[in-house]
Amino acid sequence: MAVSRLASSSLSKLLLRPLSAPPFSRHFSAAASDDDWTVLTIETSIPFTGHRIDPPSRSVDTTRKELLSFFRDMARMRRMEISADSLYKAKLIRGFCHLYDGQEAVAIGMEAAITKRDSIITAYRDHCTFLGRGGTLVEVFSELMGRRSGCSKGKGGSMHFYKKEAGFYGGHGIVGAQVPLGCGLAFAQKYSKDETVTFALYGDGAANQGQLFEALNISALWDLPVILVCENNHYGMGTAEWRASKSPAYYKRGDYVPGLKVDGMDVLAVKQACKFAKEHVLKNGPIILEMDTYRYHGHSMSDPGSTYRTRDEISGVRQERDPIERVRKLILTYEMACASELKDIEKEIRKEVDEAIRQAKESPMPDPFELFTNVYVKGYGVEALGADRKEVKAFLP
Amino acid sequence: MAAALQTAAALMASSNLVVNSERFRFGSLLRSPAGRKGSVLVVKSDGRHSVSFNAGLRGGHLITNAVAAKSEASAKSTDSKPGHEVLLFEALREGLEEEMDRDPRVCIMGEDVGHYGGSYKVTKGLAEKYGDLRVLDTPIAENSFTGMGIGAAMMGLRPVVEGMNMGFLLLAFNQISNNCGMLHYTSGGQFTIPIVIRGPGGVGRQLGAEHSQRLESYFQSIPGLQMVACSTPYNAKGLMKAAIRSENPVVLFEHVLLYNLKERIPDEDYICCLEEAEMVRPGEQVTILTYSRMRYHVMQAAKTLVNKGYDPEVIDIRSLKPFDLYRIGNSVKKTHRVLIVEECMRTGGIGASLRAAIIDNFWDYLDAPVMCLSSQDVPTPYAGTLEDWTVVQPAQIVAAVEQLCQ
Where is the Transketolase-like pyrimidine-binding domain (chain B) (predicted)? Predict the structure, then answer.
């Protein structure tokens, strides 16, 4: 008992690791910070750690426009997840609802480094990743409430968000099953000679799945342009990482595959790592990125999130490492916007989210006949009409 | 190209399908409609025919399920009979090769399919022809390479995933069930998964319990999946091609013992409809429904039955999911007695579902209970005699028909 308490408190200490140095270096290339496109070089809070690879530099280029967009997008994601929480408690969202607040920097930083032609595939904690890929709030809330205007027509639910045009491949309920799919996406990209990459996201819980290592082996053998991203929020539902994994250094788990450990709460670090990873895999085959991040909510809405960790730990991380606060501090320090402007942005977002919820609530439920649509594709020739078919038709192409 | 049919005699000679000559009425159709672009005569195996026009046909003409005869201009065969003889595994390979030529997105993934040529020689020679990117040797990791095939299909490729033995695909059950079958639905139609999963299954010659599995019974409840079972070189090639062209995920069940069957198949491009059953022997007295290897046990029993004076109608259902209830229903309405002969186990097999479907839909037409002969609910033993007692034998089929027709 004493051992476990000791271990968990040392975990908490690890998570609350304060920023050792100021989060930025005072190298500006231009004096005024009003210009949207002036490039600033900012240092990440902690350096990257590499496994079998030289980590990229700590200095990240960014602009005012980019930082403000980070702030806006992350605040929108945060607001969306908190609203989803209230909708769930109001029983408008049913089933499973896995919230991403606290981890927004991973989704936003990744988007900043890639294009919509690259692909992202993730597990069930997909609301914010979907938003980052270009999904709208109305699509999110409608799908969560099972309405017709949802991204999967209301038939998928929280764990099945997809957006084909934007290269977002879901949204998968079974832990770890998305990693082979992601390697398959990368295979198709290599086959079509696209020069694009796939980011296959999974959690610290899924890192122990066999199919992950199988897929990693095949990807390394065939030099596939896949980046495996472990979003390590330190808890696999109720089990802390030190109780589930003998080796919690997930970026080293690839053995022969290089890895990089990234501070997942620092959006600029994530952006730098993803850019570096994309360049690397296009030439050298797969790489593993471990994003050290944290979720404020429990595993899902049915999990209070406080039985396996202390409230102090949660609030500690929120104070020390919150991604949105970090960007806010950056913006204020560089005088890119004043505090009231940021407050206004947050107010706008609140209104946006409320409006989207209102629209989603008005959207109707799917029609009953939608129960049977999209089971099969009306493909080559014959229609599958079910057990009481009366006629077999063959249409030639 | 217009497909003009010659006499019925030429048709009869070109395949081992036994058909009633009076079912073919071609007088009015000898002169095909104008339009070199693509009017095609479609002849179904029960004699129904139709002519349709086809604008924008890609390459060659396409005849679905037709007993095709060549037009006078292309009668170049040195044999007196049209077509060419192949073994079943060669027919599968021909189907694969033709589809890979036709569509650059088709690729093959599996264990030992490339350099080794396939454990049953189905993919022999394809790796040399198409290279390592299209014929891929995978490590022994069914769960992940099936998942990778599905991921590639989500992005538009058309992979053909081979399970060296269908039983190994149990390791990939999650991928097949959740991702392959359901993604089209849960994404609201955004993604199609045009994957083909194929491999040999069924009870072989003393292969042991784990290598004699019949996976059709496990996969049959997965919504969104189509399942077909081939039994002759003709339908093996046709179903392989249709499965590759289909936008749905298709599981193609081959049988370990049928790979060396020889048959003469047409030279032309043809496909078999995925959802159709095949009439093997028309009859009037009792309908025997079967598929895959049991077809041959049934035909052997049918010989005995005909000698004893019975008239069984034998239908190879081919499409295991969904069932071709149209053809099956017409047969039941004619004969009023049904016997299902399958290789699955009694509990939860294809026969069990088929029986339920027939009872639900055709109860009023039945004069006798629907009988189902299936394998015993035991792991397949190694000893030869025990293995023979596990599966249905022709003598049991004869006895069952005699009992049904009392």
Answer: 86-261
Percent of chain B with pLDDT over 70: 80
d(CA A290, CA A102): 16
What token pair was written down for B122? 């189905």
Query: What are the C-alpha distances in Å from A175 to residues A136, B171, B179, B245?
Result: 26, 15, 12, 31
In angstroms, the Cα distances linking B167 to B18, B203, B319, B370 are 34, 11, 20, 29
Domain range list for chain B: 86-265, 277-406
- State the maximum Cα–Cα separation within chain B, in Å, rounded to a whole number: 62
A214-243 residues touching B, CB cutoff 8 A: 214-215, 217-218, 221-222
Check B211, B275, B342, B387 and give the catalytic one.
B211
Of B193, B50, B251, nearest in space to A394 by CA: B50
Give φ, ψ of A199 to 5 degrees: -105, 115
- Angle, CA of B316, B235 and B399, to the nearest 5°: 25
Q: Do A180 and B148 touch (CB under 8 A)?
A: yes
How many Å apart are CA A139 and CA A149, to the nearest integer? 6
Put simply, the answer to whether B143 touches A386 (Cβ < 8 Å) is no
Structural domain B277-406, CATH architecture: 3-Layer(aba) Sandwich (3.40)
Mean pLDDT by runs of 10 across the 397 residues of chain A is 49 56 44 70 92 94 94 96 96 94 96 96 96 95 94 93 94 93 96 95 94 95 96 92 93 95 96 96 96 94 90 95 95 93 96 96 90 74 40 36
- Nearest CA to B68 among B94, B49, B90? B49
What is the reported pLDDT for A16? 59
CATH topology identical between B86-265 and B277-406:
yes
Q: Which CATH class is domain B86-265?
A: alpha beta
What does the pLDDT read at residue A13? 58
**Which residues of B, range 7-46, sit inside 8 Å of A by Cβ?**
40, 42
B343 labelled catalytic: no
